[in-house]
Write a structure and sequence with these properties.
Chain lengths: 339, 135
């Protein structure tokens, strides 16, 4: 492994387009992804309702994988359900709960069920969640998962075993869109940019970031990314979170690792007459500022359980599908022509 | 009590003891058997609760670990020390995943026998005769 992460010679993408989200980004349209946190109760009707709110406005929907290390319906099951409903899920996988065997079998299982976007992260540590006594796995880190998944795209398992049923059948090269996380708010920032470079070298296609309340910091981060030319090979979707009140902001600034919430944002939400309205307005303003940053190709809306706000935020930000020019891409996907 | 359960030959145990004696007090070594200290600013990344081998996780802020806030983020230390030593370029290499077969073995011995390379990356052992196919 002598490749240097900062080298600009990373092989250009030669695969065909794998998903609607990839089509949107390759066509240089502004992408919008949303997020559904699966419920704990074993019933998918809630997911169905949330999906109905998002299906027309978002290009893809991330399904979190035991977010905050708390047990929920598994990401794979919800992804399969969304595919059945005609949706476009992004299958999130963490290294916390799976070793390399489980990571790979879940991936090929998801692919077999029609999932075409995958997003790999290392994952929150197990002591943040509801089973702090459990054994965290961390067989691999996020860079390794991406490397391994990219290898699967070439038809090989991590060990080098070929993806074919018998020696006479052709090599199978599953084609999917591979994402990774980045945190512009982490320290030291140059190291987080270097980690983006490593993920790019490992084979990532898109990046979704931690949610933004501190726009200057994202600007600084993206300036470093653009300076190195990483945005040419990676699509950056900046995380945005609309909040209903000041409470979640206070919680995030103290309890959630890797988040930077400026005091002004908390003060603004506290002083608001109509907190919900102010939260929407703040998200819209953040989106407008983020859109102007060079190298940004989309946003990722994390709403926790306030999915109903997504259409309103997008309407005000001028990011409805017809405004972004993605209606045809969505229609083509529905009629079954992904690429 | 003194039974050598892991049935290591005496010379490997000797290397093992020597390496533990040197590295455990100095680097909090956990004997992963594939030492990458020389590319991580002489700071062992296996002390990271998530055992990240390629850089900080998203929770690394203000030099603190997200899991145990009283501890420093090991990758922040690695960054600082690599800068100090002028080894920043080494951080650009992707360290491969841990080969867990080497866990608990001395990496000095593994280096001597070619089981790991000069960077501390595990090398697939040579297959002896026909390997039996099992799951």
């Amino acid at each position: 492994m002598d490749n240097k992460a900062s080298d600009s010679q990373v092989s250009p993408v030669s695969r065909p387009c794998a998903s609607t989200l990839e089509r949107v980004l390759r066509d240089k349209k502004f992408a919008v992804t949303a997020e559904i946190v699966p419920p704990r109760v074993p019933n998918l009707s809630v997911v169905g309702k949330k999906f109905e709110l998002l299906r027309e406005v978002a290009d893809a929907i991330n399904i979190t994988d035991n977010a905050s290390a708390s047990v929920k319906i598994c990401s794979l099951a919800v992804c399969a359900y969304l595919v059945q409903q005609g949706g476009e899920p992004v299958f999130q996988v963490t290294a916390r709960d799976r070793n390399r065997l489980a990571l790979q079998s879940d991936l090929i299982g998801a692919y077999a069920l029609g999932v075409r976007n995958v997003f790999a992260v290392t994952g929150d540590y197990i002591n943040m969640g509801d089973h702090p006594a459990g054994k965290p796995v961390y067989d691999m880190d996020s860079v390794h998962i991406i490397q391994m998944f990219d290898k699967i795209r070439h038809g090989y398992m991590d060990s080098g075993v070929e993806l074919r049923s018998t020696s006479k059948t052709p090599l199978v090269q599953p084609n999917f869109f591979l994402g990774a996380a980045a945190n512009p708010f982490g320290d030291p920032m140059p190291f987080h940019v270097l980690k983006v470079a490593k993920k790019r070298l490992a084979g990532a296609d898109f990046i979704q970031t931690q949610c933004t309340f501190d726009v200057p910091r994202v600007r600084e981060f993206m300036a470093m990314v653009v300076d190195k030319g990483f945005h040419e090979r990676l699509h950056f979707l900046i995380g945005i979170m609309p909040v209903k009140s000041a409470r979640p902001l206070e919680f995030m600034s103290t309890e959630v690792p890797g988040m930077r919430v400026p005091a002004e944002a908390i003060a603004r939400m506290k002083g608001a007459q109509n907190a919900e309205e102010e939260g929407i307005q703040m998200a819209v303003e953040t989106i407008q500022q983020v859109r102007e940053i060079p190298g940004v190709s989309g946003i990722h809306l994390m709403t926790v359980s306030w999915e109903a706000v997504v259409p309103e935020v997008l309407k005000r930000a001028g990011l409805m599908p017809e405004q972004r020019g993605v209606v045809e891409i969505h229609a083509a996907a529905k009629s079954g022509i992904a690429s | 009590m003194f039974f050598n359960v892991k049935a290591k030959p005496w010379y490997i145990r000797l290397v093992d003891i020597g390496e533990q004696f040197a590295k455990v007090p100095l680097f909090d070594c956990s004997m992963c058997g594939q030492c990458v200290l020389r590319s991580t600013g002489l700071t062992c990344p296996m002390r990271c609760p998530k055992q990240m081998r390629n850089g900080p996780c998203g929770g690394s802020m203000n030099g603190k670990c997200e899991v145990f806030p009283e501890r420093p983020c090991i990758w922040n230390l690695i960054w600082e020390r690599s800068e100090m030593l002028g080894w920043e370029e080494k951080l650009e290499n992707i360290n491969p995943p841990v080969d867990w077969r080497l866990w608990g073995t001395p990496s000095w011995w593994n280096l001597l026998t070619g089981r790991i390379d000069g960077k501390g990356h595990a090398v697939e052992p040579k297959k002896e005769s026909e390997p039996s196919k099992t799951n």
